[in-house]
Write a structure and sequence with these properties.
Strand 3, helix 7 and strand 4 form a beta-alpha-beta unit. The protein has about 375 residues and is of the alpha/beta class. The chain has 17 helices and 12 strands. The protein has 2 domains: about 190 residues, Glycogen Phosphorylase B (Rossmann fold, 3-Layer(aba) Sandwich), CATH 3.40.50.2000; about 170 residues, Glycogen Phosphorylase B (Rossmann fold, 3-Layer(aba) Sandwich), CATH 3.40.50.2000.
C-alpha cells in the first residue's frame, strides 16, 4: 500500500492549536503504519516576522485590554469590514502554500486553526490540490473565519457547535462531532503514588492544580496567595507555563505558605499532574479543559477572557462540568465547599468524565484515514 502523506497545520508554538495537531498526528501513527505526517506552523512558514508581531500584539491585548479582544472576536461588523483584507492576505500567502503543497503532495490536510484553513480553502477554489481539507475546532463557539464551502470536513467539540455551523450554511454531512482532540495518553492509567512521591506530595491529602495555559495567563498569583494560607487541608501544584516572571514570583511567595506548594514552569507531564489532582483552577482553553475532563477533574474557571474563553465557560457551566469564579478571592470558598462535600465533588468529577471525549484525536484520525485510504 502506498504511504499516505498528511499535512497538519496550526499557528503558534506551544499553543492549544499546536497540541491539537500533535495529538492528531500521534493518533494517525497509532492507527496506521502507512502514514507520513508533516506538522507545520503556518504563520511561521508564510510570515515569520508577522507571526512575531501578531503574537506580541495579541498577548499585549489579552493582558492589558481583554475587552478589546472580546469586541473583535466573531463580531459581524469586524468580519465584514476585514473581508477584503483577509482575501488579500490569503492571496499573498497562496504562493508559499502552493510551493508546500506541490512539494509535499499531501492526501489530506488537517488544520486546527482558521488561518491556514482559510488560505487553503480559498486556494482550492482555483486549484485542484487533490487533498481532503479538514478543519478541527478547538473551542466550543465557531467563529466566522471558519466558514468555507471548500472545506471537506469539520470536526467539532459539541453538538451545539455543529448546529451553529449548520445555521451558518455548512452542510450537516460535512460536520462530525468528535470532541476537541487531546493526546491519547490522557486515557492511560498512571501510578499515582509514584507521581506524588516524585513531587514530594502526601498521598493522603487532596491536590489542587492551578494552570494558566502555556503562557501562564490569568490571576494565578492572586489565586495562589489566597489558597496558600487556607485553613483547609489540601496541597497545591501550580504550572506557570512559559511565564518565567510568574514562575520566579511564585517560587518566592510559595516558600512562605502554610501548606505544601509545588511550583513548576512549562510542564510536559500534564497528564500526570491531572491524574493526582482532584480540582483544577484554570483558564478555559479548549485543550486544557478537554484534558481535565478526560481525567475527571472538577474545574474552577477564574475570569475568562472575553471572546472564545467566555463562550467556552458558558458552555461548560451550562453542562455543569465547571464552576465560574469572577474573583480570585472566592477560589478558597469553592475549594473548601467541594473538598468538604465528597459527594458533590464526586458527582462533578463523574459528570466531567461522562462529558469528556478522550478518543477525540483517534476519532478524527480514523475518519480522515477512512476517507483517503
Amino acid at each position: 500500500m502506498k504511504t499516505a502523506r498528511i499535512l497538519l497545520m496550526y499557528i503558534s508554538e506551544n499553543s492549544g492549536h499546536h497540541r491539537a495537531c500533535l495529538a492528531i498526528e500521534k493518533a494517525l501513527h497509532q492507527l496506521s503504519d502507512d502514514v507520513e505526517t508533516l506538522n507545520v506552523n503556518s504563520f511561521n512558514y508564510t510570515n515569520p516576522i508577522l507571526e512575531k508581531i501578531i503574537g506580541k500584539t495579541y498577548m499585549s491585548v489579552i493582558r492589558r485590554k481583554p475587552e478589546v479582544w472580546g469586541y473583535i472576536y466573531d463580531n459581524p461588523n469586524v468580519v465584514r469590514r476585514t473581508q477584503k483584507l483577509k482575501e488579500a492576505i490569503h492571496r499573498y500567502n497562496s504562493n508559499k502554500m502552493r510551493t508546500l503543497l506541490e512539494s509535499y503532495k499531501p492526501r489530506a490536510i488537517i488544520c486546527t486553526q482558521a488561518f491556514p484553513c482559510g488560505i487553503i480553502a480559498d486556494y482550492k477554489k482555483t486549484s485542484d490540490i487533490g487533498a481532503m481539507l479538514s478543519g478541527v475546532l478547538t473551542d466550543y463557539a465557531p467563529h466566522s473565519y471558519w466558514l468555507y464551502d471548500s472545506v471537506d470536513a469539520y470536526f467539532v467539540p459539541s453538538e451545539e457547535t455543529k448546529e451553529r455551523l449548520v445555521t451558518n450554511g455548512i452542510a450537516r454531512e460535512r460536520i462530525k462531532f468528535t470532541g476537541i482532540p487531546i493526546d491519547p495518553i490522557f486515557k492511560k492509567i498512571i501510578d499515582k503514588k509514584k507521581v506524588l512521591a516524585s513531587l514530594g506530595l502526601d498521598g493522603q491529602e487532596p491536590v489542587v492544580l492551578i494552570m494558566g495555559g502555556s503562557q501562564g495567563l490569568g490571576p494565578i498569583s492572586e489565586t495562589i496567595k489566597v489558597l496558600g494560607n487556607s485553613s483547609v487541608n489540601f496541597q497545591i501544584i501550580v504550572a506557570a507555563g512559559g511565564n518565567k516572571g510568574l514562575y520566579r514570583r511564585l517560587k518566592r511567595v510559595s516558600a512562605r505558605f502554610k501548606k505544601k506548594c509545588v511550583v513548576l514552569g512549562y510542564a510536559n507531564n500534564i497528564d500526570e499532574l491531572m491524574e493526582i489532582s482532584s480540582i483544577i483552577i484554570t483558564k478555559p482553553g479548549g485543550i486544557t479543559i478537554s484534558e481535565a475532563l478526560a481525567k475527571g477533574l472538577a474545574a474552577l474557571i477564574i475570569k475568562p477572557i472575553p471572546g472564545h474563553e467566555e463562550m467556552n465557560t458558558s458552555h461548560l457551566v451550562k453542562h455543569r462540568v465547571a464552576i465560574r469564579i469572577d474573583k480570585p478571592q472566592d477560589a478558597e470558598m469553592f475549594v473548601k465547599e467541594l473538598l468538604g462535600n465528597p459527594r458533590a465533588l464526586k458527582n462533578m468529577q463523574e459528570r466531567a468524565r461522562a462529558f469528556s471525549r478522550p478518543d477525540s484525536a483517534l476519532d478524527i484520525a480514523r475518519t480522515v484515514l477512512e476517507r483517503i485510504m
